[in-house]
Amino acid sequence: MPVRHVLILGGTTEARRLAERLAAGQPAGAPPLRVTSSLAGRVAEPRLPAGEVRIGGFGGPSGLAAWLREQHVDALIDATHPFAGTISRNAAEAAAEVHVPLLALRRPSWVPVSGDRWHPVDSLAEAADALPGLGRRVFLTTGRQGLAAFAHLDGHYFLARSVDAPEAPMPPHTEVLLDRGPFTLDGERAVCREHRIDVLVTKDSGGAATAPKLTAARELGLPVVIVRRPELPRGVPATPDVPGALAWLAGLAP
Ligand code: NAP
Fold first, then answer.
1. pTM surpassing 0.90?
2. How far apart are alpha carbons 237 and 103 in whole angstroms?
3. Residue 87: Cβ-neighbour burial (10 angstroms; 0-12, 13-18, 19+)
4. Distance, CA of 80 to CA of 68 (rounded, Å)
5. Cβ(12) to ligand 1 under 6 A?
6. Is 42's C-beta closer than 6 angstroms to any atom of ligand 1?
7. Which among 32, 83, 179, 240 has most CB atoms closer than 10 A?
8. Number of domains in the chain
9. pLDDT digits (tens, 9 = 90+) for 126-170
10. Residues in contact with 220: Cβ distance below 8 Å, sequence separation at least 6, in sequence order
């Protein structure tokens, strides 16, 4: 059976690029391909991918399995953010239930280089615990849903950057910076200097769009508290880039 309908679980640059490549058309002679991207609906004005788009949760693994079955999906690509662990687990469960091949598209982790002062931790709670020994003026780039973990730190200043405004609970001394990547090195240097940042907190999101903050931190000698990624569900094959996902899809065709 040729692949006729691909569902991309999206919300990332890679997911958009993949949708664009697939929606641009199939090689001559190949059967037409339906491409649907799914977004969670967290961002008020998301950048919409090419092709069909659906927005909102599926209702857990069983809801996703039902969607895959009803919409005759032949291939599922989990191109969600490395920290979107729940939807990745749901995808693994649903794909196994309805026997739809699943691939994870995960950009590689960031790797420290000489001069970096990284403090890896396993959770936002651990990141909050690490802060008192490292600095008092924090550049927090973990997204608007991550602020609650720092809400008890009333002796710290936080510059919290996110796409949409965060909601309470958040630390008492929080300044919100609404912005969306990609970010430049000059811009990140300026943010750190203007706000007299002395420690950066980030998730290990990987990718180029948000990496300049790590270079800025290195140049300025700042410590970086970096939250490690959750593991991918066991047994799910993964590729680091869009060409890898295209090759996987091509390999599914008879
Ligand atoms: P999550 O914790 O893994 O998922 C929570 C629930 O949101 C899922 O159970 C699912 O609801 C729904 N969901 C998540 N991604 C979805 C998608 N692509 N399409 C439809 N439903 C989805 O996810 P999250 O960390 O909140 O991330 C939500 C979205 O934002 C993802 O698309 C992700 O790629 C993007 N994003 C996340 C981060 C991050 O740091 N976590 C950063 C940038 C972008 P149901 O159970 O009802 O299906």
1. yes
2. 5
3. buried
4. 17
5. yes
6. yes
7. 83
8. 2
9. 999 999 999 999 999 999 989 999 999 999 999 999 999 998 999
10. 189, 192, 193, 197
- Tracing tokens 């651990």 back to the chain, one arrives at 126
Ligand 1 atom with the shortest distance to the CA of 60: 46
- Six-digit token string for 28: 């001559």
Residue minimizing CA distance to atom 26 of ligand 1: 84
Cα-Cα-Cα-Cα torsion 80, 39, 159, 142, nearest 10 degrees, comes to: -20
For residues 77 and 7, the answer to whether their CB atoms sit within 8 Å is: yes
Ligand 1 centre from 201 Cα, in Å?
Answer: 21
Q: What angle is formed at CA 191 by the lines to CA 186 and CA 197, rounded to 5 degrees? A: 125
Parent domain of 207: 117-227
Atom 38, ligand 1: residue with shortest CA distance: 81
CATH of the domain at 205: 3.40.50.720
Q: Assign residue 29 a region (left: φ > 0; alpha: ψ between -120 and 50; beta: otherwise).
A: left
**Spatial separation of the C-alpha atoms in residues 220 and 194, rounded to whole Å:** 13
* 124 in the same domain as 58: no
Does ligand 1 have an atom closer than 6 angstroms to the CB of 80?
yes
